[in-house]
Amino acid sequence: MLVEDHIKHNKRLTVFICGFMAFLFLLVISSFGYLYFGNIYISIIFGLPVALVYIAITYSFSVKTVLSAAKARPANSLVREEKLLMYKVEEMAIAAGLPTPKVYVQESDNINAFATGKKPEEAVICATTGAIRKLKIDELEGVLAHEMSHIKNHDILIATVTIGVVGAISLISEIVFYSMFWGGAGRGRKNEGNAIIMVLAIVLIILAPIFSRLTYLAISRKREYLADSNGAYLTRNPEGLAKALEKIKNDMPQGKPKGSKTVAPLYIANPFKRQSTNSIWSTHPPINERIKRLRSM
Fold first, then answer.
1. According to the model, what pLDDT value does residue 198 have?
2. What average pLDDT does the structure give for the chain?
3. In terms of C-beta distances under 8 Å and separation of at least 24 residues, what long-range contacts does 249-258 make, across chains too?
4. Which residue, among 137, 134, 143, 122, has the nearest Cα to 59 in the 3D structure?
5. Are 147 and 267 in contact (CB under 8 A)?
6. How far apart are CA 123 and CA 54, in angstroms?
7. Of 4, 50, 103, 218, which one's alpha carbon is 20 to 30 angstroms from that of 30?
8. pLDDT for 30-80, tens place per residue?
């Protein structure tokens, strides 16, 4: 499949996944309402506006939320290394045929980077100070090309927005569990409740956080491979990214990683855990496998 075909496929898949997550979120909200009000119609009327408002807010403030969680700041053009980073981001944007993203920096000794944004015109690329200092030019180009590929492939929308929805689903489920434990949920079911609907609502509340997170992580791992491949296509140098990934693998985290675990899937490698084996709970595919694929190109 050509790169252009991959991008078109990703666009369709992004629309489907965002729609699916929104629908799952609506079901969770409605189940939450049903367990409290005991009426399916009231729960839907309650759930629909809440879900729509939350998704709208998440979409509007997603980029600011991610940058705040990562404790990132705008790159300083007066600092030589950060000015070079800005030049390289611009260079990769031209190669990808995209508008130049805003450039941010995260103060961290670990080698890492991520991209975020709702669309290419509003995209942001952030690199750690460790990546700026420790990577050679061709390695830094490989990392930036990987992140530029996430932007070009429209991965940033699903990654940025879905994180908030998955987090909200988990939070609502926890609230319901504690409420049921203390006898708060299900007060309306004595008069109007239906046993089957009640059981389905409870099952959905239990399974939705697991299912939504597994779906997101599976898509995230697949898109990392694609971004590696497309990044190598942009630089015409797979070895640059392969060597950068080797340094990331061998770069032991110094102290507690900066930022929040919530945005860990956005990075080129999980800053909180170096993944060496493939797992359904992994935010990223194994680095060794990514290096192997790059060197077989």
1. 63
2. 80
3. 249/274, 249/287, 249/288, 249/291, 251/110, 251/111, 251/130, 251/134, 253/110, 254/109, 254/110, 255/109, 257/108, 257/110, 258/70, 258/71, 258/106, 258/107, 258/108
4. 122
5. no
6. 22
7. 218
8. 777 777 766 667 777 777 787 778 777 877 787 888 899 889 999 999 999
Catalytic one of 82, 139, 147, 224: 147
Exposure letters 152-180 (e unless 16+ CB within 10 A, then b): bbbbbbbbbbbbbbbebbbebbeebeebe
Q: Which of 99-113, 147-161, 183-197, 199-213 has the lowest mean pLDDT?
A: 183-197
Q: Structure tokens of 56?
A: 């709208």
Q: d(Cα 236, Cα 63) in Å, to the nearest integer? A: 30
| Count of other CB atoms within 10 angstroms of residue 89 | 24
Kindly give the pairing relationship between strand 124-128 and strand 102-106: parallel
| DSSP track, 162-204 | HHHHHHHHHHHHHHHHHHHHTT-TTTTHHHH--HHHHHHHHHH
246 catalytic, yes or no? no
pLDDT digits (tens, 9 = 90+) for 272-292: 776 555 666 676 888 999 999
d(CA 251, CA 219) in angstroms, rounded, equals: 26
